[in-house]
Amino acid sequence: MKPDFGDTFSNAKSYEAYVGRWSRLVAHPFIGWLDAAPGGDWLDVGVGTGILTHVILQEASPAKVVGIDLSAEYIDFARQRIHDDRAEFKVGDAANVASESPQFDVSVAGLVLNFVPSPQEAAKSMTQAVRDGGIVAAYVWDYSGQMEMMRHFWDAAIKVDPSASEMDAGQRFTICEPNNLRALFESMDLKGVEVIPIDVQTQFKDFDDYWLPFLGAQGSVSKYLRGLNDEMRTALRDQLQRQLPTSDDGGISLVARAWAVKGKKSIS
Questions:
Q1: Residue 33 burial (C-beta neighbours within 10 Å; 0-12, 13-18, 19+)
Q2: Which residues of the chain are under the pLDDT cut of 50?
Q3: What is the pLDDT of residue 2?
Q4: Sheet containing 190-204, strands listed edge to edge, beginning at the edge strand earlier in sequence
Q5: What tens digit of pLDDT does each residue of 198-220 get?
Q6: What are 46-91's pLDDT values in tens digits?
Q7: Could you tell me which of 47, 66, 230, 266 has the fewest CB atoms within 10 Å of its CB?
């Protein structure tokens, strides 16, 4: 399943510097919240650079984890950094992960559902892939609210370039709202659906630590920045420097909120 909206994901190292380091912080409380039984078979849909799979292996005592992603570069990166006989990585489509017979006890997706053409098809496939009573779960950034590093970026972009509102992730990714996430999972006939916020602190040592990863960013931010001339890019940088909450030592402390959702597949 190709990412929607023209968003591209191919540079694994840039992704890690941009948002991967913060996704890793969310993954730990997310896995704890799932409270899955040890010894299960896990499916990680949109495995990316392997961040969530790594935490599953560390903390959930799985029998195996199968990670699937459309990006061959991300899959190669995950294989290079995770050396565990319980992990397997495949290039594949989020909408086609199910087989004729469900093979997994838990199916998860970290920061994926807003980048696929159809969250409904992805959630359906994830549900079909788990056995009766299995867990289906995901988390996404709160782009319109408390994912502050991105909220500041888009607010600044709109101030210097009102047309940037068309690219604003908070406007485009409506699935990244708690009521919409809940409705999606309930439409899959999952039971006991819950949605919670997971807040982590994003600490930047200085403005460059915040700004430079955006220049190599993946997704809508990258697409927007590539379309700016040098003057507009400088104006955006200056606006961000004015509005970010910077401490006396130059550090920047922001909140990154993810919305997490989970439910259990009905027992036939």
A1: middle
A2: 1-8
A3: 34
A4: 87-91, 64-69, 41-45, 104-110, 130-141, 252-265, 190-204
A5: 999 999 999 999 998 888 776 77
A6: 998 899 999 999 999 999 999 999 888 889 999 999 999 999 999 9
A7: 230
User: What domains lie within the chain, and their CATH numbers?
Assistant: 12-265 (3.40.50.150)
Per-residue pLDDT at 3: 37
- Strand bridging mode 41-45 / 64-69: parallel
Q: Which amino acid is at 181?
A: L
Question: What secondary structure does DSSP assign to 81-140, as a single string?
Answer: H---TTEEEEE--GGG---SS--EEEEEEES-GGGSS-HHHHHHHHHHHEEEEEEEEEEE
CB–CB of 237/215 below 8 Å? no
| Other residues' Cβ atoms within 10 Å of the Cβ of residue 190 | 23
Quote the DSSP letter at residue 17.
I
